Amino acid sequence: MQYGFTGRIVDIDLTTRQVNDYPIDEATLRKYIGGSGLGTRILYDLTGPATDPLGPDNVLVVMTGPVTGTRVPTSGRHSVLSRSPLTGIFAESDVGGTWGVMSKRAGFDGWIIRGRAEKPTYLWLDDGKVEFRDAGHLWGLDTYALDEKVKAETHGKACVMSIGPAGEKLVRIASIITDGRDARAAGRCGLGAVMGSKNLKAVACYGQREVPVYDAKGLADSIRAILPGMVEKMKARHLYGTANWTLTAEHSGDLPVKNWRGGRWEEGAEKLSGPRMTDTILTGRYYCAACPVGCGRVVEVKEGPFAGVKGAGPEYETIGMLGSCCEVSDLEAVALAHQLCNQYGMDTISAGGIIAFAMECYEHGLITRQDTCGVALEWGCAGAMVEMVRQIGEQRGLGIILGRGVKAAAEAIGGIATEFAIHVKGLELPAHDPRALASTAVSYATASRGACHLQSLSYPVELTLKMPELGYPETLDRAESEGKGILAAKMQDLMSLLDSLKVCKFIVTGGGGIQPSQLVSWLNQVTGWDMTVDEFLKAGERIYNLKRLYSTRLGISRKDDTLPPRMLGLPRPDGGAAGYLPNFGQMLNEYYVFRGWDELGRPAPEKLRELGLE
Amino acid sequence: MQYGFTGRIVDIDLTTRQVNDYPIDEATLRKYIGGSGLGTRILYDLTGPATDPLGPDNVLVVMTGPVTGTRVPTSGRHSVLSRSPLTGIFAESDVGGTWGVMSKRAGFDGWIIRGRAEKPTYLWLDDGKVEFRDAGHLWGLDTYALDEKVKAETHGKACVMSIGPAGEKLVRIASIITDGRDARAAGRCGLGAVMGSKNLKAVACYGQREVPVYDAKGLADSIRAILPGMVEKMKARHLYGTANWTLTAEHSGDLPVKNWRGGRWEEGAEKLSGPRMTDTILTGRYYCAACPVGCGRVVEVKEGPFAGVKGAGPEYETIGMLGSCCEVSDLEAVALAHQLCNQYGMDTISAGGIIAFAMECYEHGLITRQDTCGVALEWGCAGAMVEMVRQIGEQRGLGIILGRGVKAAAEAIGGIATEFAIHVKGLELPAHDPRALASTAVSYATASRGACHLQSLSYPVELTLKMPELGYPETLDRAESEGKGILAAKMQDLMSLLDSLKVCKFIVTGGGGIQPSQLVSWLNQVTGWDMTVDEFLKAGERIYNLKRLYSTRLGISRKDDTLPPRMLGLPRPDGGAAGYLPNFGQMLNEYYVFRGWDELGRPAPEKLRELGLE
Fold first, then answer.
1. Which of A67, A243, A483, B368 lies at a CB distance of 3.0 to 4.6 Å from A274, suitable for a disulfide?
2. Does residue A581 belong to the interface with chain B, where contact is any CB pair within 8 Å?
């Protein structure tokens, strides 16, 4: 057995109910590390241009990483990968919570789902065994209720991954939820619809196996030395969650306001801030497995129009998209919309972007109350925002069109609506503004799953983060375009590694201050490998290039590596990024040159040889 | 009668054969001047979102200007306007030759064509009368042969405007040709297909009326004073034609090479240069009516594979698109392709862009010899380029798809082909590179008919032209983005005026050195008006805004004001513009702010009030 791995990736065919092992040799593990990297390799090998994202030939790959289940801080994570029904291209989602750890304890480094079950089904992964169970009685349940039911039918301490009604109805922004009311999500790219298309309602797992660690003492010593400082540095995240960013975002011009047309919005941002949440609806904090920080929020809203909230509270991204992007400043409404998204199983980022899009269409008369079941879809109307979440989740009224994502919805609505559809490659922008943090422009344009902040997370280096091991001993000027193409590429490679090890990005970018050499050291302590920082970083580059190859094989090229026109040519009117527009073309070209990609945006043959990807 | 006008715009319905006058009052004339401006007003009033560009409800508007037919230098021009079947939006084409003058001599300031003739028809405008004639025996003729036939049937000195087989077959890049073998073209936007859709093969006119001039002596004195200097300043154009630009374009990085991927191409450019043409195939020079310069080329190729050329020779744009953009350096081949385009009645710019696009598709295996009737569509192959012109013009083989323009062709071919489709709003780029002359980027993105150099002609101010009356006493740095949005807007307004007066842009931008005050002075001398330079420039702004309104009414907005990805993010590899990419977003925003257009790119209400366009 390989240290850091249980040694088993299981390949489950829902059509035939066959269960096979999917063997991976150690050389492949070293090349792709695990999690996102290994998942990409598998996805690349099993799907391609002929794969229908919602057909039985698509696969859903769920992967842990080599450090998952060990004492490495924040290592309670897993990756979900597939070909996206929202964007049609490469899709992955990085998830916190407890699933990753429990999967390994149950004896699975990862699993692959193929085919389509004849009728609603759930899987029970019980200590190395795979059981197919009928889910007819669970179909239609929301993810919170489902979690309780499945635990009752399997094991009280099982970890459950499931889809809600949105995934069942193949809503293109459907998510996959784990940990029930604590709700951790594989949010982006519509992975819940892939699960729904396979008639797979849920997967539960339980086990008590240990993950073998090569140098347990060395690892423990290292963590003991680092942990207190890390906790101290990330204290604000513990106190206020990711929503601690809300006010800073407003001040720097990063916060999306009114579908990306607004600038200053301080009063609204204050009402949605992390401290405000702590002072009002917060009832507890949630720690993903192996996390010493606990940035997860637990909230409750007992009274008023948005009562009924109990459980996971909104992250900054949710606040930015369902809140400020819709000009909604009612925190309780955002908390309810967030919970509804979790229960229906829908991405809060895309949902917010879609509703802001719909509000702008409504402002311009492209949609009317005839279309919205009577809802006056006005900017800042909290009730309308929540109602739209319901219409999408339940697939009624305007929600039927909106559930396809802004790109397809704009095409259906027609005319000028595409002006309001703020996306890259079909994926709605998350809550960071490329006009406030220049590198974000090229990060979004080149992210392999569409507009994504997490696949690069380059912007912290433009604020406070120093990455000396990547060549950034000091932070960079956020309004400078030069050098940002290179920054985005380097950070994409590093983030690919964090997603492959399966540790939380925050230990690097969120104040944790961890550098690549520490990550390699942990990886070596867990696996017994002798990987150098160079080999490690090269693996990150390899993984990112393979993600690119997945989509270039589908026809993605330079033409798709762009930004919505609003981001290219309409500056924010006031506030912390007033009047600024980065030189996008210059950054993009710098990025391609640094990447060694050709004039079509494809990794060039010499780059592929260098990375062992011929 | 109004000085400068014959007083009659005729409104011809081909369906009913009704002929009416289309009255215009003097206030409207002053607001829109004539030509392009007045034509836009008429087009705006008669067509809209419900108009099918190839349906009987579309109209073709052909307009002269107030100075057409007078002694104002270069005033032998006319405008053709319609809703474009290529782009779906506003379309106009500015044409030289003799039609404008002859139209006025025949008693028509302009004419409007509506409806659809039951069978092939031509019109004979004989000294104020409109006659419908059968064109069954002319259908299928090329424009050169047609010209001779119609002259023989009407008047030996008649001026004939016609379509060739391309217009008959509704090829989306079909042009309208006047002056037979001297071939002046309403080239861009597929106006020939509009004529074809109406079963209108040709219009001939003849007359000997004089255009009344208010201050004939003052005008004559002014012209006498200016003419010798103007001729001297434009001597290179007389000697070498517009092709004199070829080598300068190559040196500055302006010349398109290999579908806009190339940089240096000096050897090829030399073979296509104006001096080379003068030394080889040139047999004469062509002067449009009232032109003292004679930049038109008359050429002959008697022998070799490209023999059979006799008549109008290629302009710089043709050389840039059918030549260098396809890496074809054989001047005789370009001359033949040019003549074929004229005979079929097709735009040489779009034809060149389309063939370069097809060559790149062929390079990447997206089209094969199966599709091309066996033609190896390789870069630089002169014979293949000429053969593709034939396939488009005759609508066979690959020409059927290519005749739709690069945008639609790329969609039909699919996948990465859209990467190679170099257009704005569906109109193929002309032969100037926005990466060599920064203002061209925003000029192309905002031109009202799609990628167009003529609607702004801002780049001469980045090279040698000084426009003190517009605030440019010195030329600007071509690699600087700042200020170029404003430059593009100011030049668009001025070019709208030149196109409305109906004088040649070269008297301003092509070395003539004429400033707006001189243009107003001529206009006042012709019409008896007391227009100030301010009122004149305001009319230019009004006209340009009305062109914008035409297309915003159809759903055009900021989202459409962009450039092909290749122009935004892929610099030229070497040569005179190596490595440079302008800051497009910054220029575009500057442009909108200067224009007073709103966040959707529509003229804002206060701007419309200011211009009297409420």
1. A243
2. yes
Q: Which of B419, B554, B561 to mutate to test the interface with A (most CBs of A within 10 A)?
A: B419
| Phi (first) and psi of residue B298, to 5 degrees | -120, 125
Neighbours of A607 (CB within 10 A): 17
Q: What is the value of pTM for the model shown?
A: 0.95
Q: Which superfamily does A9-206 belong to?
A: Aldehyde ferredoxin oxidoreductase, N-terminal domain (3.60.9.10)
Band (B240; pLDDT cuts 50, 70, 90): very high
Interface test with B, best of A363, A406, A433, A568 (most B CBs within 10 A): A568
ipTM value of the model? 0.91
Q: Is-contact A419 A565, C-beta < 8 A?
A: yes
Distances (CA, A) of B81 to A2, A374, B47, B551: 74, 44, 11, 13
Contact B15, B115 (CB under 8 A): yes
A555 contacts on B by Cβ (under 8 Å): 414-416
Q: Are A21 and A11 within 8 A, CB to CB?
A: yes
Q: What is the signed CA dihedral for A393, A396, A399, A403, rounded to 10 degrees?
A: 60
* Whether A464 contacts A605, CB under 8 Å: no
Please write the tens of the pLDDT for every residue from A556-605: 999 999 999 999 999 999 999 999 999 999 999 999 999 999 999 999 99
For residue B27, what are its two tokens?
């206030």
> A513: pLDDT confidence band, cut at 50, 70 and 90?
confident
- Confirm or reject contact between B423 and chain A (CB < 8 A): no
Q: Would you say residue B264 has pLDDT above 90?
A: yes
Phi, psi of B171 (to 5 degrees): -60, 130
Decide whether A243-428 matches A438-611 in CATH topology: no
Kindly report the number of other CB atoms within 10 A of residue B118's CB atom.
10
Distance of alpha carbon A573 from the chain centroid: 30
3-class secondary structure, B19: strand
**B441 chain-A contacts, CB cut-off 8 A:** none
Q: How far is CA B187 from CA A53, B41, B84, B88, B594, in A?
A: 45, 21, 12, 16, 31
Residue A237 has pLDDT above 90, yes or no: yes
Q: Do A581 and B581 touch (CB under 8 A)?
A: no
Q: What is the mean pLDDT of chain A?
A: 97
* pLDDT (tens digit per residue) in A515-549: 999 999 999 999 999 999 999 999 999 999 999 99
Tell me which DSSP letter residue A431 carries.
Answer: S
Q: What 3-state class would DSSP assign to B203?
A: strand
Q: Is B48 on the interface with A (CB under 8 A)?
A: no
Provide the CATH topology of domain B243-428: 1.10.569
Task: Report, as an integer, the average pLDDT of B532-560.
Answer: 97
Inter-chain Cβ pairs, chain A and chain B, closer than 8 A: 88
d(CA B182, CA B311): 6
pLDDT category, B6, cuts 50, 70, 90? confident
Q: Does residue B414 sit at the A interface (CB-CB below 8 Å)?
A: yes
Q: How far apart are CA A489 and CA A455, in angstroms?
A: 10
For the cut 70, the answer to whether the pLDDT of residue A1 exceeds it is: no
Measured between beta carbons, the chain B residues lying within 8 angstroms of A557 are 416, 419
Pick the CATH number of A438-611 from 1.10.599.10, 3.90.1170.20, 3.90.45.10, 2.30.110.10: 1.10.599.10
**What is the residue extent of each domain of chain A?**
9-206, 243-428, 438-611
Instruction: Flag whether residue A589 sits within 8 Å of chain B, measured between CB atoms.
Output: yes
Dihedral over Cα of A568, A571, A575, A576: its sign: positive
The answer to whether the Cβ–Cβ distance between B558 and A569 falls below 8 Å is yes
Task: Show the CA angle centred on residue A274, arms to residues A272 and A276, nearest 5°.
Answer: 65
- Distance of residue A36 Cα from the nearest chain B Cα, in angstroms: 27
For chain A, the 3-state helix, strand and coil shares in percent, each to the nearest 5, are 45, 15, 40
